[in-house]
């Protein structure tokens, strides 16, 4: 019988939630790294017992934790993220040049093939890689150095690289997204990069059609169809059918197209999930009703999913890293909230229940489907 | 032997007690003590001082004999009471946040 392991990063530690494939009875373990912010933790597809966690605090900086036994035990590995060469400057909020300074790891993306190879998206935005299980990290400097880096500006939450999409069919192709610089792609394994933001329109920047400067919150795709990308931008849900060369809006009938997270069904490449949030000023669901929206048509036509979710007085947020899917036959959808709830639907979103209700604010959710 | 007091989160991270002792060859300076701590417990690298610049992290303070020595030169000798082990060298997480 298969099992699922849900990796939850919170403001005050990590939690590991496990269940059989029925996903009705859950064991909650944690907090791991109690008191520290866990921006993200993720397992290696090549070795599901190999986990990586980003542990950080305003006091003591960045720590990287690694587990070789599915989270039972952990050990710190390398935490030195040195920008390649002279770091230079990006643009500060007031338009002045500001030195690049490493702050924290926002996202780990383990290689689908090598447990010791992991990509790390960091703040201030850059992409790093380890090939020795996290002992040492090297920047892929072509991203910051491709030409627009000096114009990148932080979003309200910092200038973090949060999305890393590896292409199992083409290891040389990687898509990343940065708040608030936009989306970028390499086709040569990270040596050279270019912006892929054509079609994005952001009314809150001086040139709404600018090459960079768009506040991309999250990009997701189905691994079987790597050229089709779904994006939750600051405002607007977008779709690309050509690997990001061009984008079109697919917000359709969403009640609000502001949001943070987006994900794709494990078996249906055109089934997409978002959690609409009222606005950039009001980071909670419309009307106090927590609803996931599902499109079975790759966007534009969306249906509200609310069975089992609070439909009154709910004013939580769902952050960009806080949604994931399992790979079981009846696809499970998971998300966590800033109110500390972790919800699961074992039937593609039709019905929801809470796995946990009172964790610290949830920053990230990842799911492993285990044999 | 030099005594070094560590804040709880760092002691937990390194899986050690909140006060440790270690040999530091003279001259005993803040830099020498912190280098010795990081060499003995590599998990603490980058948590008290920035891994790249070596500068004290903003919300970490260093005390010796009841004095805040955070802004003293890292290469200045520490007081004799710290060198002799009568007083600990204290690494403190600032009271900050909410």
What does this protein look like?
- The complex is a heterodimer of chains A (371) and B (98).
- Chain A is mainly β.
- Chain A has one domain: 7 Propeller (Methylamine Dehydrogenase, Chain H), CATH 2.130.10.10.
- Helix content of chain A is 0%, strand content 39%.
- Chain A is built from no helices and 30 strands.
- In chain A, strands 3-2-1-30 form a four-stranded antiparallel sheet, with no helix packed on it.
- In chain A, a hairpin with a 7-residue loop joins strand 12 and strand 13.
- Chain A is globular.
- Chain A starts with a strand and ends with a strand.
- The model of chain A has no long low-confidence stretch (mean pLDDT 97).
- Chain B is α+β, with helices and mostly antiparallel strands and 98 residues long.
- Chain B has one domain: Ubiquitin-like (UB roll).
- Chain B has a five-stranded mixed sheet, with helices on one face.
- In chain B, a hairpin with a 2-residue loop joins strand 3 and strand 4.
- Chain B is globular and about 30 Å long.
- The mean pLDDT of chain B is 95.
- At the A-B interface, strand 6 of A face helix 1 of B.
Ordered list of secondary-structure elements with their pairings:
The complex is a heterodimer of chains A (371) and B (98).
Chain A: E1 3-10, E2 13-20, E3 27-32, E4 37-43, E5 51-57, E6 61-67, E7 75-77, E8 89-91, E9 97-99, E10 104-110, E11 118-123, E12 126-130, E13 138-139, E14 160-166, E15 174-179, E16 182-186, E17 194-195, E18 216-220, E19 229-233, E20 237-240, E21 248-249, E22 262-264, E23 272-274, E24 292-295, E25 303-305, E26 323-325, E27 333-336, E28 342-345, E29 353-356, E30 362-370
Antiparallel strand pairs in A: 1-2, 1-30, 2-3, 4-5, 5-6, 6-7, 8-9, 10-11, 11-12, 12-13, 14-15, 15-16, 16-17, 18-19, 19-20, 20-21, 22-23, 23-24, 24-25, 26-27, 27-28, 28-29
Chain B: E1 2-5, H1 8-14, E2 19-22, H2 30-40, E3 60-64, E4 67-68, H3 80-83, E5 89-93
Parallel strand pairs in B: 1-5
Antiparallel strand pairs in B: 1-2, 3-4, 3-5
């Amino acid at each position: 019988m298969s099992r699922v392991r849900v990796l939850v990063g919170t403001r005050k530690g990590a939690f590991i939630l496990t269940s059989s494939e029925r996903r009705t009875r859950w064991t909650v373990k944690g907090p791991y790294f109690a008191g520290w912010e866990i921006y993200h933790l993720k397992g290696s597809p090549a070795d599901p017992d190999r986990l990586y966690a980003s542990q950080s605090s305003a006091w003591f900086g960045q720590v990287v934790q690694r587990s070789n036994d599915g989270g039972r035990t952990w050990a710190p590995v390398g935490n030195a993220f040195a920008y390649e060469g002279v770091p230079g400057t990006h643009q500060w909020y007031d338009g002045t040049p500001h030195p690049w300074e490493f702050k924290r790891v926002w996202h780990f993306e383990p290689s689908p093939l090598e447990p010791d190879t992991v990509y790390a998206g960091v703040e201030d935005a850059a992409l790093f890689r380890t090939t020795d299980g996290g002992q040492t990290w090297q920047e892929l400097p072509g991203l910051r150095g491709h030409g627009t880096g000096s114009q990148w500006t932080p979003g309200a939450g910092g200038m973090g690289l949060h999305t890393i999409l590896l292409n199992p069919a083409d290891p040389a192709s990687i898509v990343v997204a940065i708040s608030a610089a936009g989306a970028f792609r390499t086709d040569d394994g990270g040596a050279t990069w270019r912006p892929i933001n054509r079609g994005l329109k952001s009314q809150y920047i001086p040139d709404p059609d600018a090459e960079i400067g768009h506040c991309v919150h999250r990009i997701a795709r189905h691994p079987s169809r790597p050229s089709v990308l779904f994006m939750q931008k600051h405002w607007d849900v977008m779709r690309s059918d050509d690997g990001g060369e061009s984008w079109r809006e697919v917000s359709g009938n969403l009640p609000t197209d502001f949001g943070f997270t987006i994900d794709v069904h494990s078996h249906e490449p055109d089934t997409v999930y978002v959690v609409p949030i009222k606005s950039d000023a009001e980071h909670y669901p419309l009307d106090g009703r927590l609803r996931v929206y599902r499109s079975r048509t790759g966007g534009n036509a969306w249906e509200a999913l609310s069975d089992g979710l609070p439909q009154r007085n709910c004013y939580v947020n769902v952050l960009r890293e806080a949604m994931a899917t399992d790979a079981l036959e009846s696809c499970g959808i998971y998300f966590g909230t800033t109110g500390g709830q972790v919800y699961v639907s074992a039937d593609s979103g039709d019905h929801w229940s809470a796995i946990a209700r009172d964790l610290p604010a949830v920053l990230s959710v990842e799911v492993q489907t285990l044999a | 032997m030099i005594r070094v007091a560590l804040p709880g989160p760092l002691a937990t991270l390194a899986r050690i007690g909140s006060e440790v002792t270690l040999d530091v060859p003279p001259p005993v300076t803040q830099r020498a003590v912190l280098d010795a701590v990081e060499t003995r417990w590599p998990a603490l690298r980058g948590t008290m001082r920035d891994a790249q610049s070596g500068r004290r992290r903003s919300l970490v303070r260093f005390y010796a004999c009841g004095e805040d020595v955070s802004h003293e030169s890292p290469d200045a000798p520490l007081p004799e009471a710290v060198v002799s082990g009568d007083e600990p060298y204290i690494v403190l997480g600032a009271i900050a946040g909410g």
